[in-house]
Amino acid sequence: MYALVPVGDVVTVATSNQNEKGKKTEKYRGIQNQGATCYLNSLLQTLYMTPDFRSILYSWDYKEAEDKFSKEYCIPLQLQILFGCLQTSLRNKVSTKGLTSSFNWHSNEVSYQQDIQEFCRVLFNAIEESFKAIEKPCRINDLYQGAMSDYLKCTECDYERINILEFLDLSLPIHDPWNNINNSSLQEALENYVKAEVLDEDNKYFCETCDKKVRAVKGLLFKKLPDTMIIQLNRFTFNEYGNATKINDKITFPYILNMNKYVNEDISDKIKQTDPHFQDLQQEQVQQEENLQINSQTAEEIKEEDQSDKTIEDQQKVDQEAKQAQELQEMSERQAMGEEDIDYSDPMNSVSGPKKEFFYGNLDDQDQIANVVYNNQNGSTGGTAVPTMPPSHKARDDAEILNEIQTDIQNYIVQGEWVYYLYSVLIHSGGVAGGHYSAYIKSFEDDQWYHFNDSTVSEISIGDIEEMFGDGRSTRNAYLVIYKKLKLKESTEKLEVDTDFRAVINEEEIPSYIKDEVEKDNEEFREEEKSRLRMEADRKEREAHITLRIFAKSKASEESTEDISSNKIGPSDPLVKVVEKKIDFKNYHSLKMAHEEAYKVYELENQGIKLEDTQIRTYNVGLKLLKNSFEDKQDVSLKELGIDLRAPIFIETKKPDEVFDSLPTEMIPLRYYLWKDSIQSLQEQYLDCQVLFVNQNNTVGELEQEIIVNMIEKGTLQEGQSFENVVLYTEKYFGGGVTLEEIDGGDDKTKSLKSSRVDEGCRVFVDFKIDSGDTTNWQKEFEKHANRSIIHFNNPHDGPVDQWANEEYKSFASTYENTLFMDKYQTILELKMQISERIGVDINEFRIMKAGIRYEEIRDLSQTLVEARMQSESKVFIELGKPKSSGSENVIIYEAHFNHQEDNELFIYSDVLFEVSVDKECSVRELKQLIAQEYSKKFLEGEPIQRDRIRIRDKGVERLGKVMRDGKLVKDYGLCRNKVYAMQLLDFEEILTDPMEIIVVIREWIPNGGSGELTRKKEILLNRNMRYHEINEVLKNLGIIPEEENPEDYDICKISSIMKFMVEDLPNQKWTPLTANGGFDQLETAPFYLRSDGHLMIIMNRRKFNQMPIIKDESASLAVGSIEDANVSKYDKFNIRSTAHTIPFIGGGRANNAGVTIKVMDKKAQQEQELKKQEEEVKRKEKEDQKDKQFQDRMNEFALASQHKEQIIASREIEHASVQAADSLIEETNAVAPDLDFLGAFDDDDY
Question: Locations of Basic and acidic residues compositional bias (predicted)?
């Protein structure tokens, strides 16, 4: 984007080629998001785009550490592989699975966002540990590590205490209401960060030298700045209520950062700027010294003293700086040699001057730093020379920004070498509870800025950076900024920028073993691309498949002498018969090919018709109308012509000496209707339709003339009807009804049909007025139609014997062949009386029901057809029998047996057990009692059963539905005629009253190779308000999660469609950890929305899953907690390991409150871990085998018991079967399996 170019003695700025903003680039590769690893991706891209870091990483040789680390757990190696893929891979996005596996991370770690600053520190430490393991120095600290002095100085005795603190990054507070800090720029935050604090009044410091509490000054000074400086704009803090919050205020930061004024500052000078009282003491001390000198000196000495008075203060400053530099050098040497810290508080160790205390430590570990930062008082920037960004978000021109950068560089390099330029901005979008990270990074190769957003990389302009300052409203703003020190020329008398410097890492620097790994991955990618292209070609071929509907005249029509021209084909020409054939084609085939194929299929050559005597035309199937031909379009594809299954075509034929009728594209078919006194309805089957082809550009008057001419030709024009009194109407739909509307109001007959909205297929109603004020027949019919209901009904005397039970018969349209025309304000009683006359049955001897899904009986005979929602065309089903009273309904009862087989079906339904008449005010407990009595009478020979052992549920297609709660009324669950319920006969008594309780079916998926296996199904009782961690306790208590397993290792998912469910699909399900979001999500909220009974839930021990060699296609989107599978890359095949979290987190993403740890494992630790897992797997397998054997034994007993039960039922249906035979069978059944339902004899908790 910008480069420094020498022009004479002036440094100028040259812009690189500007590309389209937001344009995707293929120069750099993106990184896939594993679920919530956008923060990791942003940091890794920044590190990769830092040439020094990449060079350091490539210098590490895995061959030296091969005996200490396996490839899977070696962090530097996996980072090398990742960088190698980012640099030379053929893929446009790479995966971090190999790297996160080397961290010993499990799916939990990649499913939660960590703080990017904390992760950066932990990553550097982990890499450093790996370098130390092979006794190789790690130069990362040289690149990022700086040092500062945490000082405290007594203002009375000059006692100083200095702690030397090292840092890898700076965390600058933005807003701290407790300490009156409210920074608006990075420079202001930096000034407040190093601003000294005066300890006075109640906060005085106890000085051991003075042996009293004294006034003191404390603060921070930079002693060493790194080459690459990471600065965090700490937008995450706590508000006055103690709640975590994000600050979205505008915080500007410069493109060029001048740090010269902060390097090697003098403590005394810093204190003088901060504490006026200390300045007074210093002046008083200097004045006393001057007075003593004046009393002992001669006049000449006084004169010389006056001449040198101006240099005293400067000389003191130089001496002080030299002294501090020497002390710092000695401390660094002792630290490098590993010497013990020297106690400078001991007077014996003091050489001269005021006593000092030194402490070597790490900035990240010191509580004093946080105290200093948050105790600083707000103030001005102290006249800092570093300019701030513009005060508004208004986009600036790139040239203006580049000129500012040029000016700043020229001004700052004359002050010193500590000048930095911005090259990376890490952006956070969202709040403390959720968010997304991306990065703006400047390339050192072409000076272009890029936006790295997970798998997408796009070009941006330098002006886009200013949009990340924040504006107080948007949650998308800069969170971390990274600066690089300007490269200066060597061996020059003055500081000059090295404009020829280009930090480019060539492929030659990549270790050979990394090149080999990347090449293997590239080879896999080539094979995948070949496979993908083949699949893409197959997909396009499948999508190109179409079925053509090709129509032609039948042979019977050919024998007719009737003229069959295009404007004659229609419903009014009964002699013209059309046949249809379907042909499979490809949409990229030409019309010519379709024409030739249709010619062959209809065997027109055998009929003596030549190909040139045929043509293809579009065809309106409903109106049986030929439409446009395709002249001069024989070579155009079917797709371009819009021909497919929904756009049928017609192969038209002619005699050799004839010419095809040409139909201009402006010609459209119109249907017009003449009035007849026999018309009963406006439905098409009751009307006499005539078809006329007209030009859409014709006027309304011309249309009237064409209709009159057509009527004369057909002989339908009657006396008194003429062009002068013809009226044309079209239909107008509004408010769910239809009315007549005269075309253009009958006033302007010069308007075209197109402007009058008369289009293809439009229905035109033709009528004639005798007087201008007359109401035409069509107008009267439409008025009637507005209040008319057409009722279709069946005749119960026709059709099968058991019409009600015959669902197929009830669904046939032909069943409702009887029709009544009624006013919609007539009552149901009037309708029933008319039906009674038609079928010859008294109105009290048949029931009338609305045809549909439920076939509910209409019992309120006083309501109108409108109130009964029987307008327009409605169907009613007539059933012989006495009508039911308005207060009771018949319900149908099935029995549902819990299915213990391994298939997907949860319940096995019996045939219909019986029907029960239920009053609408009946309670659920009363219904249970009715069912218990009926069940006992019909199947248990009167042996009573407890009603609380019965569970009543809706009978669903895939699963049992809602459980009817005790204490509720049956009508609360939508009671209607022939409502279908399923009853479960339980082995225990159950009373459910809480509407928040739900019953679900649960199974465990054990991924032990292949697609794995599912344990047997179990019904459990949960509460909709339960949190995820509470499910743990339930599953543990029920024995579903074994005692030796950790419930927090389990994930859970909901199966949306049980019938379509396959075990092979489980790896791709959306798994949710049972401790998701700290266990605060409820079952009735996302992602499960468990608000009703009967759902199937699957649990899985993710540690067992990690042992499966299942790989997921990287082209698929990754959901949080998803299981991944595909032949993508060798580096994606590493299993995910778990580890503990240690670092607290505030900010960004789904917060993991525990932090993150990267664990370095050597080979010995890895082998011990794998051996332990193998032993656990063997024990688990033995236990499962034993359970499977017990389960199979009980299944055999259950099958035998069920067979005997069926024999009992069958024997009772046979009239000549004796009671003794049935009793014998019952005794035999009880001897084999006393519990027919089988659940009680087998302890579920043991399985």
Answer: 308-324
